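Hi everyone, sorry if this is the wrong subforum. Our group has a chain we'd like a structural model of before ordering constructs, and none of us has done structure prediction before. Sequence below.
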Amino acid sequence: MKLVVLGPGHPFRGGIATTTTALVLALRERGHVVDFLTPIRQYPKWLYPGGGGGRDAGACPEIEGAHPVLDPLNPSAWPRGRRTALAAGADVWLAPYWTWAWAGWWRFLLAADGPPVVGIVHNPVDHDAGFFSRAAASAVLSRCRGLFTHAIALERILKVDYPGVPIASHPLPATSVEEPPNRDAARRALGLPLNQRVAVFAGLIRPYKGVDLLLEAMASLPVESDWLLLVAGEPWGDEGARLERRSRAADLRDRVELDLRWLEEEALGNVLAAADLVVLPYREGSQSAMAPLALARGVPVLTTNVGGLPEVVRDGINGRVVRAGSVREIADALTNLDTGSLDRLATGARETSEQLTWGRYAESLEGLVETVLDRAGREMTEQSNVEIAKS
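Answer:
Right subforum, don't worry. Here is the predicted structure as tokens:
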């Protein structure tokens, strides 16, 4: 098939950019011709309150056939983006959806005639969504001819919200599966002790991810507990200041280390290699790109029962799943994980990761695209027959 993928890639950072780039490469590996149209900029500064303008040249590979022609924040640039997409002569356009900030551009793209559009739905609505962002999501996704998402739980939601639209799902694979560094070497690089168990939260730090709950769980652990928590990632807004204040309290002394910055690939590799356990204590959410990254490195995951996380993190197999919002259940899970349990879960993590590949992800998406094309072909035939009958 001839495909156009429209979404972020090099030099931008974040899960959407890395997974969209990985999708393009996987589709090409399976023999498809794929044009990749990328943005000149992603977000207005007030929407992305992190550093670096959301850029990291090392976060995504710079790949052939990528054209930085999109500017979702500048309506005067939208016609150029649409003309470029049309010029590719694709069978289908693939469009990742995750935020209302691109909704105006997506609606413009979908308003006129063109190839069928399949939405790659990372988030059915923004985190902490209000009326406006929900309306923006509906205005875009209702115009797509198919929707592909990353969890059965999200697939069920989309089927209720968009009845009659072909929908499929497949969990996100890891975006990087490089050989991890030695654990002791990684801990030395990070200044972490070699003789303690290390739990890690890594990634963008936002309120919905529940890092504050994890700190409270750490504070409630028995005095003799040998768990050390490393929180590594870029804070959203004033989240960093709150975490720093809390971590200085007496009940967290010598239990928490903070590394509050954007983690480039090498630093993230060290953080995951140093971990005995990755903790994703989400209050709410759809899924996490960090879970497959951890599993691919043989690191078990402790997470909560939100969105599609329990579909990837299987309780007692490759990690633990606890009730969202429960400090006590997070603390109990940490307390009950002994060395033998962690070793068994690490084995399960590696086995799970072997099943989560970009080839299988692309194959699942292909099935949906073929369904969309078959339906579009039937509709064109029916329309043609109607016009012939009228004449």
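For your construct planning: The chain has two domains: 2-173+357-390, 183-355. The two ends are 34 Å apart (CA to CA).
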